[in-house]
Design a protein that fits this description.
The protein contains one helix and five strands. By secondary structure, the chain is α+β, with helices and mostly antiparallel strands.
Length: 105
């Protein structure tokens, strides 16, 4: 009986450490820059179009810090993200208008 309890305890501890390793691997923070497109406020998703035209689907949550106003299509954004459960989730979104101001001559 004691051996059985010991074996179950070791298996449980191993499963916990493997689960922790997977969780740590799943969360990898990075920063992305581009223009927001297809913004869906209700679903809390948008596409981030980078300089090469590649679009990346991004999700945000109620915990995401959004600075610079409301997120809208065409806004230039700098986004801190991590990957979780196959989705790219924003931890912060900094908005700067994509429109450039003309220089006075």
């Amino acid at each position: 009986m004691t051996r059985k309890v010991l074996a179950v305890s070791i298996a449980f501890a191993a499963a916990l450490s493997i689960g922790s390793a997977v969780s740590a691997k799943d969360v990898h923070a990075t920063t992305m820059t581009g223009v927001a497109a297809a913004v869906d406020q209700k679903a809390k998703t948008f596409a981030l179009k980078d300089a090469s035209g590649k679009e990346t689907s991004i999700t945000w949550t109620s915990a995401t810090q959004v600075r610079g106003g409301a997120l809208k299509d065409g806004e230039r954004v700098n986004v801190s993200v991590f990957q979780k459960d196959g989705k790219i989730v924003a931890t912060s979104i900094r908005i700067a208008s994509a429109k450039t101001t003309a220089k006075a001559s």
